[in-house]
Design a protein that fits this description.
Elements lengths: L1 E6 L3 H12 L4 E5 L24 H14 L3 E4 L2 E6 L4 E5 L2 E10 L3 E3 L15 E2 L2 H4 L7 E5 L3 H11 L4 E5 L9 H8 L4 E4 L2 E7 L6 E6 L5 E4 L3 E4 L3 E3 L29 E3 L11 H21 L2
Parallel strand pairs: 1-2, 1-6, 2-3, 6-17, 8-15, 9-10, 9-15, 10-11
Antiparallel strand pairs: 4-5, 5-6, 7-16, 12-13, 13-14
Helix pairs in contact: 1-2, 1-6, 4-5
Length: about 300
Amino acid sequence: MHDIVIIGAGPAGLTAALYARRADKSVLLIEKESFGGQITHSPKVENYPTLMQVSGNELGQMMVEQVMEHGADIELAEVTAIRDNGDTKTVVTDMGDYEAKSVIIAAGSKHRQLGLDRENELVGNGVYYCAVCDGAFFTGRDVAIVGGGNTALQEAVMLSELCSHVTVIQNLSFMTGEAKLLEILEKKDNVTLIYDTLVTELIGDESLEAVRLKNSKTGQESILNVPGIFVAIGQQPENECFENITKLNDYGYIIADESCLTDTEGVFVAGDCRTKAVRQVTTASSDGAIAALAACRYIDSKK
């Protein structure tokens, strides 16, 4: 029996583990894939306090080492369910069940991908999913951004201030983001908006050199020469197995505010898997601290 089982070892889960251990709570951290979360896919992180520049992989590794140094237990397994036993919880995994007084869900979310050949291979070498994180690497260069929602348009506005030219590629005949953002982009000389168009191929050997485009109405193909493409077509939370323990919104995110409380006593949520406006490594860490302290207060209240 652990005091707290934390599901997910991204920045939110790792920060939660750190705070819980410093509160002298026994902690089990369960991760199904790679420790460090989505940040490990970023080649450079320059917006994390105290670190001028670090790779996402290095940052994740430092977080893991710090948590292990503080004595957290770690298991590599996939969580399939949580059972509420009242004062205790059972975390069900493909490697066995684990008992806990409290659970923190920090399962994160994944960026939706284009689903193209070599996409994963080119991540960090021309293919990116966060302009806020990686846009500065393309200062003074041409880039493309795929998507037409608020995130894509907001990132296009930001990139237009850094890059020589920005091409926004939308698969629909209209943008789904706010009209005000679209109006800003339409007035910029260094922004081109392309509609009814799909990215069908990523071109380049060791790094991206160009993308192949196809108009979905006419079938016409073209090549756009860009060294960087930002994919902003949404995120996918991985919360299906938690539907029995807490409410999800229409997009699959766990419904919780900045308090990180779910509607099940003793179950908390942190990071990108919850409903929130900003998803960055710093906000994930903030959630982790808040959720851990809330879980500690919950456990102490039961003594």
